[in-house]
Amino acid sequence: MQQSEGLGVLHIVGEIHKEFMLKAYKAELLADELKRVVIEGFVDDVYRYTGAADLVVTRAGANAMA
After folding, report:
1. CB hemisphere CA count around 3 (13 angstroms)
2. What is the mean pLDDT of residues 19-45?
3. Stretch 53-65: mean pLDDT, rounded?
4. Is the pLDDT of residue 66 over 80?
5. I need a labelling partner for 54 at 20 to 30 A (CA). Which of 5, 10, 11, 26 fits?
């Protein structure tokens, strides 16, 4: 992973995948990289995150994002 001091990642994975993804990130990232990753199963205020983000990658459709 290329280092970027201001980079933070929020990965919303679904409740059933949360533990699996946490283990996967821990296996692949260094400790200082892992500090900048937040894994959530579900968020009900996604608009706050998308509004603050510089980049959003999603598989959701336009209606879900609106």
Report:
1. 4
2. 94
3. 76
4. no
5. 26
